[in-house]
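1st attempt posting a full record on here, be nice pls
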Amino acid sequence: MCARRGLTPEAYRRITSLALAALAVIIVSGAAVRLTGSGLGCTDWPNCTEGRLVASADSHELIEFVNRVFTGAVSLAVALAVAGSLRRAPYRRDLVWWSLGLVGGVFAQIIIGKYVVEMELVPGVVILHFLVSMVLVWNAVVLHHRASWPTDPDGHARVGPIDVDARAHRLVQAVFVGAMAVVVSGTIVTGSGPHGGDENAERLPVLFRSAARVHGSVVLTFLALTVCTLAVLQRTGAPARVRQATNRLLIVLVVQGTIGYVQYFTKVPVVLVGLHILGATLLWIAVVQLALSVRAPVAAIVEPEPKPTVAVR
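the predicted structure (as tokens):
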């Protein structure tokens, strides 16, 4: 009989790339549903409408239904990530657990998506739907990152901080927290803005301009924090990969902030809002990659062999 061949680490890393890409794309496709006013195109779940699984020729129904179909593609990519983690050679338990985290997240999104439809796009539930998507992207980035690490004999990839100045470590942690504040404040702007997914959708009882100004202030603070972090990393001689990750974040942040201000002063056109959501997803990926860059696998500790004792006569 032929020996069963396992999946190579390189092949599994490609699978995790696919899962990450699918989870990022579905955030943008979900935004397209909202921006085209198709949030209630399909009024039932899991059927599109009562008694019919597939959408009719109505454009809103078709847009919402295509997004649901793509959810199936995302589920398949996640299933491949789990199956690949079980077949990867050498086997890594940490990769299995992180891939199962994607399964839990997708299952949660299916349940939340059901309530988004049944509660007719209540802003709080829609915001929760988006934030869970961001958690899923975080999970996928970590899985993809760890998939390239070497494996200890016991099936683990132990993680520890790299040689970076303590102040730089704290600043990177602050950047991560700041990014969460940017994302959350952005959802408040969206929840109070004009694109609710349906012309009759409920909006948050917050003035759109006030929410936008608060969000803008958070973004500017985050920008200053990122610039400060980069300066400290350069001054303390941080590893190249950490400085490169910070540079990527800064570039994405500047582009994203520019789109945000342009869309605000041009009365939030649909195309720019879509680009802004894509930018938010890329920004979050860049932040997670920065946080991961200051930690690395550490080799298993090998106990030294005992030195032979010399008998004293």
